[in-house]
Specification:
The protein is α/β, with parallel strands linked by helices. It is built from nine helices and 14 strands. The strands form two sheets. The chain has an eight-stranded mixed β-sheet with strand order 8-9-10-7-11-12-13-14. Helix 1 (about 15-25) crosses helix 8 (about 285-295), helix 4 (about 80-90) runs parallel beside helix 5 and helix 6 crosses helix 7.
Amino acid sequence: MTDHLRWGILGASNFARKAMAPAIHAARHNRIAALATRDPARAEPFAAFVPDLTVHGDYDALLADDGVDAVYIPLPHTLHVEWAIRALEAGKHVLVEKPVAMRAEHVDPLIQMRDATGLVCAEAYMIVHHPQWQRVRSLLAEGAIGRLRHVDAVFTYDNSGDPGNIRNAAATGGGAMPDIGVYTYGSTRWATGAEPAEITSAVIDWEAGCDVLSRVGARFDGGFTAHWVNSMRLMPDQFILFHGEGGTIRLDAPYNAGSFGEARMVWRTPDATRVETWPGVNQYVLQVEAFAAAARGEAAFPWTLEDARGTQALIDMAYAAAGGRPEA
């Protein structure tokens, strides 16, 4: 590995172009080396800020590129495991977009390949790198709001006007829970360190085999309950509230800090209300820098494939409680 971690991107997705490629470009000790796309025109926006970009016409060619150390995979959900395994087999570190897989057990072969190769392979779960989430996790661990009794989380947007979006197609792993439920469910798990004991309620609205609005409740082994709302058909909104016997902690822009709103935490107790903000933090850049540190063996990556599997297992439980996916 050179002094910079050299990245290859599989597919010229809109998210890669708008968020992750600029983050890799901006991250310290990282650079974009290559992009794989069958459409040269889709490579042009990337080449605009990476003039020496190598463009490959297929994914296998990028995996064979000796000038690439790590691969970022923003492909449709149903292709994540296959191409992550191929990248590991090619000797590349792998950062794969969420959700890693469509069912929890599908993550297991990827975990086995990661362990067999000794390479870094992780889900691109950017929020755990943001200081607002690290602060919340520390406060909860310290008992800053007393005994936690309930968590409420909402993450919604509306893509009803974009029927061609892969999130609206069951064949490509569409649905609100795979796309954004990973945030409400996973952030509850990560911040509290607790795992679900049972799903207590699950009401899901479906369109063409995709969950477009879900309201799911759960009881956790930590002695608290949680309720999550995720939708691709509601006005955009997001927040999370941790409600304890001695206080509350609320994040106003927990998942898209900076673009949805300011990273802002309100911590209330009977004696005081404290507000903390983190202006100008780019959680995608922090994620890339953390991944590079893990690839160099300098630090552990804070979100493992096992963490991702746990969130997918919770999503699987929610689907099962609602009667399963329509196509199942």
